[in-house]
Amino acid sequence: PASMWDDEVVRGSIGEGEFTIFYLNAGRVVAGLSVSRSGDLEHARRLIKSGADLGERAAALGDPSTDLGSL
C-alpha cells in the first residue's frame, strides 16, 4: 500500500457505491481503491507498475468517458 500521496482522483460515484479512487504522488499512480469497478483496478495496477508520470493527464482518471487504457 502507498504510504504517501499528494492527490486523489475519484472515478465513478461514491454516493452510488461504484467508484475508484486513484492515489497519486508527483503525478504517478501509487495506489488504487475500487468498489464495484474491478476493471479500473486492473488499470491502476498497470499504472502503478509502469510508474508513468501522468502529469496533466491525471485529471482524466476521473472522467468516465476516458479510456483508461490510453493513459
Alpha carbon gap, first and last residue: 21 Å
How would a textbook summarize the main sheet? Answer: 3 strands, antiparallel
Shape: globular
Question: How many E strands?
Answer: 3
Query: Approximately what portion of the residues adopt beta-strand conformation?
Result: 25-35%
How many helical elements?
Answer: 1
**What's the pLDDT, averaged over the residues?**
94
Catalogue the unreliable spans. none
Which strand order does the major sheet show?
A: 1-2-3
What proportion of the residues is helical, as a percent range? Answer: 10-25%
Radius of gyration: 11 Å
Overall structural class, as computed from helix and strand content, comes to alpha+beta
Order of helices and strands: EEEH
Structure in a nutshell:
With 71 residues, the chain is α+β, with helices and mostly antiparallel strands. It has 1 helix and 3 strands. Strands 1-2-3 form a 3-stranded antiparallel β-sheet, with helices on one face.
Can you describe what's shown?
Helices cover 18% and strands 32% of the residues. The chain contains 1 helix and 3 strands. It is globular, with a radius of gyration of 11 Å. A hairpin with a 4-residue loop joins strand 1 (7-13) and strand 2. It is of the alpha+beta class and 71 residues long.
Key attributes of the depicted protein:
single chain; 71 residues; alpha+beta; 3-stranded antiparallel β-sheet; 1 helix; 3 strands; 32% strand
Secondary-structure map with pairings?
Layout: E1 7-13, E2 18-25, E3 28-35, H1 38-50
Antiparallel strand pairs: 1-2, 2-3
